[in-house]
Amino acid sequence: MEESRRQHRSNTWSDSEIEEMYNVKSMTEETKAKTLNLLRVLKAIRHCNKATDLDSAITVIIQNTCSILSCDRATLFLVDDFHSELVIRQAVGIKDIRIPLTAGIAGHVYQTGSKLNIPHAYNDSRFNRETDKKTGYYTHSILC
After folding, report:
1. Of the candidates 80, 74, 78, which has an alpha carbon nearest to the alpha carbon of residue 61?
2. Contact call for residues 61 and 44 (beta carbons, < 8 A)
3. CA 18 to CA 136: how far, in whole Å?
4. CA–CA gap between residue 104 and residue 133 (Å, rounded)
5. Which conformational region is residue 93 in: left (phi greater than 0), alpha (psi within -120 to 50 degrees), or beta?
6. What is the mean pLDDT of residues 86-98?
7. Do the beta carbons of residue 106 and residue 132 sit within 8 Å?
8. Residue range 133-138: average pLDDT?
9. Cα end-to-end span (Å), the chain
10. What is the secondary structure of 82-119 as a DSSP string?
11. Distance CA 75, CA 88 (A)
């Protein structure tokens, strides 16, 4: 069984093979851009699956999210049901930041299951400024 898993992993396609399989070169520019973004997501998932621990997986997710969305920073919230908190595991210079499940825009999205695109974070009354204060970062916009 283990031998078949190893063999399966060695038979996975490379990024260039996947692009060739989808015949990306022959697509219109708009379709090509969308397809390449989807392939970047697939690549991110593949890299995340290779992570050996949670922090490594979070790093892969954040780096790939920033690359795909062309943003300078991304935050991944983990849910701590035991303490009823959302947890940021990796923030610049800080180990963990914990907020109540109901706090801020992330809490709102967690509670409602909605998706939000907020172009000016500080103009939204739900925005929790405490994380920016702790990290020294100024959040301009949010896709949550």
Report:
1. 74
2. yes
3. 40
4. 14
5. left
6. 74
7. no
8. 84
9. 40
10. TTTEEEE--BTTBS-EEEETTSHHHHHHHHH----EES
11. 7
8 A C-beta contact, residue 73 and residue 66: yes
Residue-by-residue DSSP string for 9-71: HHTPPPHHHHHHHTTGGGS-HHHHHHHHHHHHHHHHHHHHHT-SSHHHHHHHHHHHHHHHHT-
Distance from C-alpha of 44 to C-alpha of 52, rounded to nearest angstrom: 15
Amino acid at 43: K
Query: What residue has token string 């896709």?
Result: 143
Mean pLDDT, the chain, whole residue set? 82
* pLDDT value at 6 more than 50: no
pLDDT at 5: 47
Distance of CA 11 to the CA centre of its chain: 27
Query: What's the pLDDT band for 101 if we cut at 50, 70, 90?
Result: very high
pLDDT in tens, 63-77: 888 888 888 888 889
